[in-house]
Structures are given as structure tokens and as C-alpha cells.
Amino acid sequence: MRLVRRVDSLENVTESKRRPKKWTKELREWLTAIVVAVVLSLLIQNYAFAQVQVFNISMQNTLVEGQRLFEDKLSYHLTVPKRGEIVIINSKEEHRNLVKRVIGLPGETIDFRDGSVYINDVKLDETYAKGQTFPNNFKTPYVVPEDHVFVLGDNREHSEDSRVFGAVSYSDIDGRVLFRVWPLNKFGSI
Fold it and tell me: Which Enzyme Commission number(s) are on file for it (predicted)?
């Protein structure tokens, strides 16, 4: 009987050496899950959705400095920007993202008269605009090139926009703003 027990205990020792310990297997599973979650979140942040912060006053009163926005990076791979949408632009010159509103579409003629914007000789109704819109040395009338949009900040008298850097190529648009996420009392669509 003693001999049988000794053989059984030797078999258990060698079998336990061959099988990984339960805690190492569980640790490996947790680490795999964490790595997969981090990689997926980075992919989503870089290629699908992102959170951006407003850093200047060019979009007041619609957006103010310090607010955080939820950006959709996927839509413009399937569609093109529409007038009135707020977009995030990759500014290579300023090495930061800019938040602006799409005003003019490809092929449209932009003009500024008496502090207002005219698209194809029709005055644009802009309830969101703060202040008057002047050309600021931008030569008008201006025809928006193909695959470009003309963007303006809502705070027209204090905005560096297409009047300064010209029309924006579709390829320079990072995404569109879906809604505001911060501060919480302003949470929701824009």
C-alpha cells in the first residue's frame, strides 16, 4: 500500500510539472485581453473616432475654448463634407488641428458683401455666425476648387480660416464633429 501511494505521489509531481500552473494560465489570459483592448482602442482612436479639444476662440459662440468634442473620422471616407458641418482640419502649417465650419462646396463662388457671405450670388443665412464677415485681403469672388471646401470660423472677426489659408482639400479634413462631450452641462449635439 505504501508503495502504491509513493508511486501515485510521484506521478502527481511529474504531472504537475508538465502542466502550467493555473495562475500563470489565468495571468496570460488577462494580459492577452488587456493587450487586445489597448490595441483596439488605439486603432479606434486613430482611424474611427476621437475626442478633440477646442483651443481658440474662432468658433465662439458655438464652441468655446476648453470644450471637448467627439469626432467621427469614418464618414468622409464614404461621403463628402456638407455645408454647415463643423470639421476638424489637419493644419500642417500650425502643427495642430483646427475646428471650422464648412461654408463653400466645390465649384461654388464665394463672395463677401456688406459683412455677409454670398454663395453663387445668394446671401447665406448664418444664425450661428458672430460678427460680420469681411474678406480680410482675400480676393473675391472666389471659386472653390474641386475636392476642396471653403471653411470659416463662426467668430468671423477673430478667425483664421479659408480667408487666410485658402480652400481646404478633402485629404486635409480629419473628420467631422458629432457632438460636444465636455463640459457635461453642454453635452449633446452642436
Answer: 3.4.21.89
